[in-house]
Amino acid sequence: MCEASNPNPIESVDGVTRFFRPDTKCCTYHPRLPNYLVGAILSDEDAAMAEGRRRIQEKLDRRVAVNPQWLKAPPRYTLLYQNARQAFGRTQSLRCPYYEPQGGLCTIWRYREAVCSTYFCKYVAGADGRKFWMTFKTWLTLAEIQLSRYALLQHLPDYVLNGRDKADAATVPLTVEDLDDQPPPEKEYAELWRGWAGREAEFYKACYQSVRALTSQDFENLLGIDGTIELSILKQRHEAAVAPRLPQVLKLNPGATVQWLPDGSIALASYSEFDAIALPGEAYGLLVEFNGKQPVEAVRQRLRDEKQADLHEDILLELYRHRILIDVNAPSQ
Fold this sequence. Notes:
This protein is mainly alpha-helical.
């Protein structure tokens, strides 16, 4: 969410800007690429992928955060990312290594992973849209884990059989090499890669070919019961996002951010610090009447009778999707 794309920017209530830097946008994140996606990038000979291939090969040559399952962020980067405060989209030091600053584009976009495939700073469906995309990210992440493990079993089974795929997710103290963004000791690296050491690109390409050969039934089997459950949740989230229903009883969200603007209008935000709704100032006096004690239709009728005003159902639905108005009967919003 860059300032240039917002013709009428609103100052934040705490004085801290929420706009992304134009030279980073939302790309202050280092993707975790599964082995088969790395292989797909290296196998794609399209001229449009030349820069992406070059950057991937450069990372392989450096041997930092390069293992048979993932090509991921260096440990020092991860430490900074996890401990940075209000830095997303606003610091050049965390900019993605695959981002091309000259054109503001991604050099590996064709093969982006789960996080980059599902992140948006704003959602047409508001909070329900964000829930859908976050659930989709969970499902895609599961697919990446299982497909990368399958590829490992085909080409480097000991990596899985010895539990290295689980150890990869563990949080451990940084080594001297990690602190200096240097590769691990030669012996440690060789033990990690076995016979593939020095042939990493070839290994990743082999992983891609193995995954590419899977049928849809093979894929479903790999995801198992977890995949079935996540897909069912995803379908529910999709239905809520594309076919929303206005709850019977609504209440003005006490946690919503309210900011009066110089022109007398009002900005309201709730589910996301990046997504506010602007309304005429007069509308706020109508919104406070939604206190969760009466059905929506009863409140609307009272507004028509007492204030000769009304909020159309479409407006109420939009306010609900952004959780400015909340369902008093919902266990969670």
